[in-house]
Amino acid sequence: MHLTKKVKAGVLLYALLMAAIFSLLLQFYLNRVLATQRQNQLQLSASQAYLMAELTQDLAKDNSGQFTFNYGSSSYQKENQQIVIEVRLKSGRSYRYHFKEESDKTKEETAERNFEKEKTAPEESKEKRPSQTHN
Fold it and tell me: Do the domain assignments include residue 126?
């Protein structure tokens, strides 16, 4: 009878140990999922802010100004051949970017180069494609 009590206590201790290990693994997994979710949310916010800053840079005409977007607002100020853009998202986060200011001539040259690349790209793909015949 004394032997049976030891076995029952051993099974109970084993079950308690397995439950503790399972809860630790579950806690680790949940913390990883939450950390990944937070990281993805921050990456999305940073990407949205950067895109808003690029749009602000393209639309900026005066020495200073402000634009409002769906996800927040941006304000810019031109100083010493650079443009400083501050983006405020609706979530409350704030980002600041410094871009080198391009002259209008440089913007036109870049646009022309991109247009030339787009124009020649479809022609090159036609040349590389083998001709197909259907019976």
Answer: no
Please indicate, yes or no, if residue 110 is contained in any of the structural domains: no
**C-alpha span between 6 and 11 (Å, rounded):** 9
Q: In terms of residue numbers, what domain contains 77?
A: 10-100
pTM: 0.62
Q: Does some domain include residue 59?
A: yes
- What are the tens digits of pLDDT across the range 47-87? 999 999 999 999 988 999 999 999 999 999 998 889 999 99
Q: Give the pLDDT confidence of 99-112 residue by residue, as tens digits.
A: 998 766 666 667 77
Number of domains in the chain: 1
Kindly report, residue by residue over 22-48, the tens digit of the pLDDT: 999 999 999 999 999 999 999 999 999
